[in-house]
Amino acid sequence: MLQGILRPGDQQYEELKRAISMQKALTVGEHGQPTTGEGGFALIPQALQNTLAVATAKLEHVQFYRALPKPDETGVVSPFYEYTRQTSLGEDLEPFVDEGGIPLTEQSKFERLYAQTKYVATRRSVTNIMQMATVLSGLSQDAMNAVEIETLNGLTYLLKQVDHALFWGDEDANPLGWNGVFTEIERNPFDNVFDLRGEALTPELVQEHVSHMVGEGHFAIPDALWMPPTVKTDLAKLASQRLTYGLQNSGDVLQLMPNAIATVTDAPVQLKSDIFMKSPVLPSDSAAGENHPETAFSVGVSLSTGGSPGFSGDYLGTYSYKVVAFNAGGHSKPSVAVSNSQVPDSTNNRIVITISPETGVTVNDATYYKVYRTVKGGTGTYYYIGSVKASNTSNGRDPVTFNDDNSWIAGTEKSVLLETKPNVMNFKHVMPPVRIPLARLGLEVPFMIVMFGMPIYETPTKIAVVKNIGRVV
Fold first, then answer.
1. How many structural domains are present in the chain?
2. Contact 56, 67 (CB under 8 A)
3. Has residue 36 got a pLDDT over 50?
4. What is the domain extent for residue 347?
5. How much is the pTM?
């Protein structure tokens, strides 16, 4: 009907087409006539599969989530995902027998595992006046209405948070989340954690790590090394004939950047970077979130024995710490900085952080705490070094302790050596991202963007983590 009256390219045609597009976006999920009440329609979720393809193609920073295999979600409707992991082909015995002899019976070993579905979401809204605006978004070259833009903004935000959690998530501290790959591998090591103790990652070390993972006990064929951009930059500085290069478009400048490294595997290991792998730093000095916990706790510092690897050698000195409380409603402002008054020694080589919540406070309990530390000397940037779950057994708050064994050196980075196959690590979508309209309670259009799923570590022995990577000096 529209084309029968006006022709594409006419001003009236384009204006009317935009108006119809805007109306469609503003009434998504409103179909048919209301069955009860007045002026109300059923709210129906809008799938974002097509939007996701567009958004992720524009989100150059969200690399790891996009690269992970995502098996077909058909039939995955349970809040739990069960799977079987093969752990062995049998004992390592001699295969030789006498002529006509009977060989020993060997059996493969399996274990049954499960993963719990996790739920991620963001709530968004657009005011009525913004509904009438058609603007250009940084996510697209096309003009879009405000609802479309905020949908893409919300999806961008959600995937950014998901990508970050795929590295740094800690389910022990935050039961609502999942374990990121750093946490999963480091807490369940199988000779697949390489600690550089502040040394730079070199092409030679990468080759050694790949050779180790290819060998007995792992049998991996790594095809990608994921790292923060700073680590990839340092690898470029340490360039050798083992690196291959590709053109990278940086604005109006084409520059050579290393994209792979030759190893013992048949194909070079691809060098991948993701900005959300970078070591997190202390949030701003203010709290964030609608229902954030209060900074209603004190922080103490002491020394103890048992640190592994512990503070020794060049790491003996004074450090400054800050703590931030988190819950589902946001995070508190950082605590007052505290420092160790005594320097660790060969016996007392562990620094213990004691977090003591105030008693009688009942506003917005903390779910967990994140601990941040400076480099030696106690000044400069505060880097994230770990989390600890809050204890809520007595009056809602009990003291908890965090042991700093210097296993993670503040200011260093981590990388992941991965075989990118579904039977090694994948992301299981129970429900892909969807847009769900909410009831209007004011002069705005509210909606949520939600996604249900979880990372599955089917064969973690084929994944390696390189930790405490320093900079080239």
1. 1
2. no
3. no
4. 297-404
5. 0.80
